[in-house]
Structures are given as C-alpha cells and as structure tokens.
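Entry 12.
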Amino acid sequence: MKAISTAKAPAAIGPYSQAIEANGFVYASGQLPIDPATGAFPEGGIKEQTRQSLLNAQAILREAGLDLCNVVKTTVLLSDIANFGPMNEVYAEMFSAPFPARSAFAVKDLPKGALVEIECIAAK
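Predicted 3D structure (tokens):
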C-alpha cells in the first residue's frame, strides 16, 4: 500500500489518507466540497459543491498520475436526494463515456454540513 497526498486537495480531517494506492487501483477517500485554497465551501449550492468535490478528487488522482478518466467506480453521498438532478448535471460535465459505475445515496448528515461528498476508485 502507498498513501497518496496532495496540498491541492483538502487535508484529511481524521485518521485516514486522502487516497491509498494498492494492486493497480487508487482508492480516494470521500471528498467534501472544501476549496483547499480557502478551507471553505464554494459559494452557491449543490452544483458548486459537486464541482469542488470532483475537483478535489481529480487533484488527488493527478498526484497518483491519473485523472477522472481512470475512475471505475464512484459513491456519491447527498444530504438531500432532491439534489440528485443538479448533482448529476455537474457529474455528467466532469466525466465522459464510458462513465464510471456509481452508487448514490441520501444520508442524514455530512461532515461540516456539506451537501455532497464523493469518493472514487480509479484503475492504473
């Protein structure tokens, strides 16, 4: 196992790594929509937060020599399932076919009051 870390994405806020590389895969931890330059969520709503979460995941993957095109699976956690449509619009802009496999769930709460958190698995 090899830990992946970059200052271009928010630091872990607990006892976990931004990502772990193992057996030809990179497992990126769930990314909150924190702008690493400001430490805050972007202004706006679910679309802006989705974009920031994916930009954070992309920065981590790039540290491992990969990009979003290498993602094979994502998990999207939403604070409200009503945000699924707008999240999906931004998601479709950030990924291209063949799209990764995906699960999406509404959860009771997300850390720091985020509207979305996205984790991904990428293949080398």
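Annotation: The chain has a mean pLDDT of 97. Helices lie at 46-63, 84-94.
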